[in-house]
TrEMBL record:
Its main location: membrane. InterPro entries: AAA+_ATPase (IPR003593), ABC_carbohydrate_import_ATPase (IPR050107), ABC_transporter-like_ATP-bd (IPR003439), ABC_transporter-like_CS (IPR017871), P-loop_NTPase (IPR027417). GO terms for molecular function: ATP binding; ATP hydrolysis activity. It is a peripheral membrane protein. It comes from the Bacteria. CDD domains: ABC_Carb_Monos_I (cd03216), ABC_Carb_Monos_II (cd03215). It is found in: Cell membrane. This is Nucleoside ABC transporter ATP-binding protein. GO terms for cellular component: plasma membrane. Residues 3-239, 255-499 form the ABC transporter domain. Pfam families: ABC_tran (PF00005). Keywords: ATP-binding, Cell membrane, Membrane, Nucleotide-binding, Repeat, Translocase, Transport.
Length: 506
């Protein structure tokens, strides 16, 4: 099915999110929509899907003008959408999620769950998804949950499939699997709109590329375009794609972790006897496939895990057993891996989010009263320093793009007197321009003599930032290796194979 958008315009008050955008996606084509966070990509697709009503322009399918009053109209016309944040009910099975909203029925109006199961099996077998119709969604890995979203769309006969930042929560292995699935869908005649900001993925699967900046189409490119050319189109300037850093000036050990073991709520050991040190002026990157204990390790460091054994000392002070408040007061800055759930309060303003972990005293609270003048000046300063794209410091943070939300978290955590900085997935779901900015701030923090821990599933990010790399597998440390260790060696370590180099910690 051919999709054509003509002159699509969408405004929110004084903000023009989409400014007369034209886009054509041919039948059986993977068309990549590339742009920074906040460029207007997702808004455009929400207009296509009927979630927003355009203020101007037309949507055409096979040259026929469409009028969508909601997602139901879009789905009936053959448009499906796989959202960045999955629209699944965790306590329902795969089949129940797939049938939700267009439930097959038997005689007497009874639900026909068997028909839903058969539909899941048919689509799963056709594309090699290997999805169990009776599995609870909550029990499935993230990559499989995404397949369920795809099955949902295909079960409604989607001829145009929109993937909105589909790899933001996937591991490298799951990303490769998704690329293969997209090629299969294309071969079956499905038209695909692929929204992303990851240049490697664009060049790997796109047939054509349209670049959006600040709500406007600023150019088209072929997949043969270089990363530098694509990045320049995205942000309107030359972008430094490599991290510039000098050799570290190492100080004494700042953080020392010994025999750290974490047991989860159901009694499983998720971090198993982990020991390491981080020196002042050093970045220790923790690598591994998602789900091998990295999340629980970082949460233990900041007091978010309850069943923790072992020692965590910061500048000689024991932190294990301390409250989160006490850990933060000890000078620990923490960027959680899920900014929406753990890093921000969506309905709070940017200014309010910037004072979240300092709302109990100076400089923002005095004698129980909020110091609005102080907070306003601080918020404006940080919005400017961290280049947060927003109409106002009073804007609810939920209205910001993912990259700008991440900048708010970083601005808050890096604006205190730090003795340790822990950043989990610091650039997840963030565009290339924001990645450049975040990486610079991480290195600046390291160069200021602060011990830094970066947890990332992106190997390019790990090797770019790390002075040393610790690889985890099934809750244990496979090894600690130099920052310039090859991707091949790191890949083997991520699969549980210990490094062969003598003198490497394991």
């Amino acid at each position: 099915m051919k999709l054509e958008l003509r002159g699509i315009t969408k405004t929110f008050g004084s903000l023009v999110a989409n400014d007369h955008i034209d886009l054509t996606v041919e039948a059986g084509e993977i068309h990549c929509l590339l742009g920074e966070n906040g460029a207007g990509k997702s808004t455009l697709m929400n207009v296509l899907y009927g979630l927003y009503q355009a203020d101007g322009g037309e949507i055409l399918l096979n040259d026929d003008v469409q009028h969508f009053s909601g997602p139901g109209d879009a789905m009936r016309a053959g448009i499906g959408m796989v959202h960045q944040h999955f629209m699944l009910i965790p306590v329902f099975t795969v089949a129940e999620n797939v049938m939700l909203g267009h439930e097959p029925t038997k005689a007497g109006g009874r639900l026909d769950l068997g028909a839903a199961r058969a539909k899941v099996r048919e689509i799963s077998d056709r594309f090699g998804f290997d999805v169990d119709p009776d599995a609870l969604v909550d029990d499935l890995p993230v990559g499989v949950q995404q397949r369920v979203e795809i099955i949902k769309a295909l079960s409604r006969d989607a001829k145009v499939l929109v993937f909105d930042e589909p790899t933001a929560v996937l591991t490298p292995q799951e990303t490769d699997e998704l690329m293969a699935i997209m090629r299969q869908l294309k071969a079956a005649g499905t038209s695909i709109v692929f929204i992303t900001h990851k240049l490697r993925e664009v060049r790997e699967v796109a047939d054509r590329i349209t670049v959006i900046r600040l709500g406007k189409v600023v150019g088209e490119a072929e997949p043969t375009a270089s990363n530098a050319e694509l990045a320049s189109l995205m942000v309107g300037r030359a972008v430094e794609l490599t991290v510039q850093k000098e050799a570290p000036t190492l100080g004494e050990v700042g953080l020392s972790v010994s025999g750290l073991t974490v047991v989860d709520a159901i009694g499983q050991v998720v971090v198993n006897d982990v020991s390491f040190d981080v020196r002042r002026g050093e970045v220790l990157a923790i690598a591994g496939v998602q789900g091998n204990g990295q999340t629980e390790l970082t949460e233990a460091l900041v007091g978010l895990q309850e069943r923790v054994e072992g020692s965590i000392t910061l500048d000689g002070t024991e932190l294990n057993g301390s409250s989160v408040r006490a850990v933060l007061d000890a000078g620990v800055g923490f960027v959680p891996e899920d900014r929406k759930e753990d890093g921000l309060v969506g309905e709070f303003s940017i200014a309010e989010n910037l004072m979240l972990d300092r709302a109990d005293g100076a400089p923002f609270v005095k004698n129980g009263a909020l110091q609005l003048t102080t907070l306003t000046a601080f918020a404006r300063d940080k919005v400017a320093e961290f280049d947060v794209r927003t109409p106002s410091i009073e804007t609810p943070v939920a209205r910001l793009s993912g990259g700008n939300q991440q900048k708010v978290v970083l601005a808050r955590e890096l604006s205190r007197d730090l003795r340790l900085f822990v950043a989990a997935q610091p650039t997840r779901g963030v565009d290339v321009g924001s990645i450049e900015f975040i990486h610079k701030r991480v290195i600046e923090t390291r160069d200021a003599g602060v011990p830094v821990i970066v947890v990332s599933t992106e190997l390019d990010e790990v090797t770019a930032l790390a002075d040393r790399i610790m690889v985890m597998y099934r809750g244990r440390v496979v090894g600690i290796v130099p920052g310039d260790t090859s991707r091949d060696v790191l890949g083997l370590m991520m699969a549980g194979e210990a490094p062969q180099n003598e003198g490497v910690a394991a």
